[in-house]
Write a structure and sequence with these properties.
279 residues, mainly beta, Immunoglobulin-like, Lipocalin, 2 domains, 10-stranded antiparallel beta sheet, 4 helices, disordered N terminus, disordered C terminus
């Protein structure tokens, strides 16, 4: 699947000089590939202002969480089909691996349409990729990795992608939260470790006082943490995408407080540790 990109990468390396200390602009840009396509759905319904999120995944390991190689997120008022472009560094591709794209359409922070079947990455980057999404529901009857017929819950390990209506600031470590089956909560709030208790009653979800360690971090990390903890405190409910990999926490007015994406259990075990000095 990736032979086309690998052959081109070798050619670029030969022309530009793979061992050069500084690449000229043409050579520096040569490693970037742009995928183009559009996203649609079959339902005959109008789409309110929304956010389209498209990701390129390494799907080689069937039993492991797919690695995200690139993503793009755009606000739009368009109706479907919604065009997108996704740029990525093809030097990240590995011979023998398989790659695919998935997409989600969010409205007011809630997943409205999601990928149920991933789209293989085309060998030709000039191909026009067509992705057809399925309607998401407020709650799912199964979660990723769960047996069919199991009741959906917000339990699991989750990485924050959006806080309120804004994406988590780049450059820092995003909040990571583990919700155990008994409601025990632990993780990382953007600057400090956090722990506490969640009360889950059907579609209702609240968090008790969340306790954190007391480390001082860079201003952006502390700002992310303060906003994250504030929005967690305001949470009153939850929605889970049918695929089980997107969790939206909402307030009493059903407005999004935090949007998470599911992570492996190992991600919780390796949650970032505070490295700054005590306050």
């Amino acid at each position: 699947m990736i032979a086309f990109f690998l052959r081109r990468s070798l050619l670029v390396a030969a022309v530009c000089g793979a061992s050069a200390a500084v690449l000229s602009p043409p050579c520096a840009q040569a490693a970037t590939t742009t995928l183009r396509g559009s996203v649609t759905y079959r339902e005959r319904m109008a789409l309110p202002p929304s956010v389209l999120d498209v990701r390129l995944l390494d799907t080689s390991l069937a039993d492991a969480k797919a690695e995200v190689l690139a993503r793009t997120s755009l606000r739009t008022r368009r109706q479907v089909p919604i065009p997108f472009t996704l740029k990525f560094n093809r030097d990240l591709l590995t011979a023998g691996h398989t790659y695919a794209l998935d997409a989600t359409i969010f409205v007011d922070g809630h997943p409205w349409f999601v990928t149920t079947t991933q789209t293989p990455m085309p060998e030709d980057n000039k191909a026009n990729i067509q992705m057809v999404l399925s309607r998401a529901t407020a709650t799912a009857t199964t979660t990723a990795g769960a047996t069919a017929g199991a009741t959906a819950t917000p339990a699991g390990t989750w990485k924050a992608e959006r806080i309120g209506d804004a994406p988590v600031a780049e450059g820092g470590k995003p909040p990571l939260l583990n919700i155990a089956a008994d409601g025990t909560v632990s993780g990382f709030s953007g600057c400090n470790r956090v722990r506490g208790k969640a009360t889950i009653d059907g579609a209702a979800l609240t968090f008790g006082p969340l306790m954190t360690t007391r480390m001082a971090c860079l201003p952006q990390a502390m700002k992310t943490e303060q906003l994250f903890l504030k929005n967690m405190e305001a949470t009153r409910g939850w929605h889970l995408a049918p695929t089980g990999d997107v969790l939206a926490l909402v307030d009493a007015q059903d407005k999004p407080t935090v949007l998470f994406r599911r992570q492996s259990a190992e991600a919780h075990e390796s949650a970032p540790a505070p490295t700054a000095t005590p306050r």
